[in-house]
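Case 240 in the screening queue. Each case pairs one protein sequence with one candidate compound; here the compound is IPE. For every case the pipeline is the same: read the inputs, emit a complex structure as tokens, and attach any notable structural observations.

Predict complex for case 240.
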Amino acid sequence: MPLDDLDLSRIPRHIACVMDGNGRWAQAQNLPRTEGHKAGEHSLFEVVDGCLDAGVEWLTVYAFSTENWRRPKDEVRFLINFNEEILFRRRDELHERGVQIRFIGRRDWRVPKRLLTRMDEARALTRRNRKLVFTIAFNYGGRAEIVDAVRSIAASGVAPTKITEKTIARHLYDPQMPDPDLVIRTSGEYRVSNFLLWQLAYSELLFTDTPWPAFGREELFEAIARYQERERRFGGVDGR
Ligand code: IPE
Ligand code: IPE
Ligand code: MG
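Case 240 output:
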């Protein structure tokens, strides 16, 4: 689907992606699972590119969940090193394209110091960019995020009756992040897997069988086209 076929007045402001299916894509070609993660880098940058061209303002991707520590040690180690390497290798290019890099997730003892440093460097380098806010969810879990928000609200000493939905939203990892308009999950699983639980209350969900390494610009525009066919009601009746 070419960009020209989209209604440019109704581009989702925030797209979030569950980049799933790397391992199965690789195994289907008799390659180790890690080759699937490597191939996924190309898809990720195609999607960033597509978002820049379509005028999407926020892109959030699920890179590593709080549950992904359950994977074999070698795969976990690969994913950590690979994320660190990508940040180092591609940050200048993202910076030149006006992309602001942010992170959500728990900065706990399991995340190596070196990776945290890379994250901080990428964030600092790109903090003034305004074209696209590109958020990487690393060691992220929606439930952990809500737990962390509740802890910080409790620590603030606010009276229980004063706690509203806004209070909770203000204590999430990135209080500035708008709720996603469109959540895309690749590779044929119809679940949320602990992604952005609070934020996706009214998001449009789109599931595609295409595995992440085969997803790209065209598939992104196709997903936006499907989104534009939806009628969002937010509990009301008239689509407004
Ligand atoms: C998504 O691909 C990448 C991460 C979870 C880091 P998977 O590794 O989950 O691939 P499948 O789902 O096993 O095919
Ligand atoms: C979700 O994918 C996490 C990421 C894409 C980083 P998983 O592959 O971990 O999800 P499940 O285990 O199939 O639910
Ligand atoms: Mg998976």
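Case 240 observations:
- The first strand starts at residue 14 and ends at 18.
- Residues 41 and 211 are 13 Å apart (CA to CA).
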